[in-house]
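**Folding the chain**
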Amino acid sequence: MTSSGDSSSSSNDESEKQLASLPKGDGWGLDDNLCLYQDFWVYSPQLKGVAEFQNDFEAFDSDILLSTLPKSGTIWLKSMAFAIVNRARYPVSSAEHPLLTSNPHHLVHNVEYYQSFGTCNSLSDFVSTQYSADTSRLLATHMPYHSLPESLKSHTSSSKIVYLCRNPKDNFISLWNYLNKRGPNITNPFPIEKAFDLFCNGISLFGPVWDNVLGYWKASLENPEKVLFLKYEDLKKEPKSHLKKLAEFLGFPFSVEEEKGQVIEDILKLSSFEFMKSLLVNKEGSVNGLGFENKIFFRKGEVGDWKNQLTSSMVERIDGLFEEKLRGSGLVFES
């Protein structure tokens, strides 16, 4: 008879073998290599959370999942969604609002990083301790649509998925700058030319970018009641109309009284890049076990900053690449 301890050890050995067999990719100058798991790239320490989320997570009808690629507006989306969903519990104008004293990553957790936000040994334990069953669970991920838990994607579930994407050129620049503020890259920055080549070859965190974006784009076309697809640039152009659209989609629409008052404007201010960057909590401290200083999540938040850092040949290459990858999908990014 095999003891439970032996079974656990055998399972761990099998997981180690599976990890060792995964194709490896350049980690953009960081200590860990990227691993190719189910056709997307992820750092090896995150594989446990990724696999548990996919295999063990059971969605409630009231669940809300926020999905983004890294550095494509994640904090902005988390801030807006948190303020919308919790405005009855936390009035937006309150001096005690959690967004004033907590980094958005502490309020809306990326499930694949759960090990960095506490001492729980499993994702199920983490979710049960962090979220109340009588409120909408607001979760986040960077995982591609095809690898999400089936219970979340099911057409019979009323859970909601919101995806925010960004122009690939700005996404690349933001990601490269961000990773150069971490680990060995701080004193020895990873060359932009090498990072750009990896990005265009599909080797980037939770990429290839075009696969990640297209997965959610197609899902939003097939089931618009289930998946809301947003662009960072559109939010910048028309923040009020897109905030209202987000609130309605999430099932927390603004009342007539709220629209006549300052609620929408207050949420836009509270979640704005400039305001969030100015808060002491986002200038100091770090994100728990991740060890990232809060301040590195806030750089410029601009549209078109790529023009200051990409060469003309880089622009020509990335524009041609995404024109090819997105052809026939109906999805277009402005040049």
The longest helix spans residues 4-21. The first strand starts at residue 24 and ends at 25.
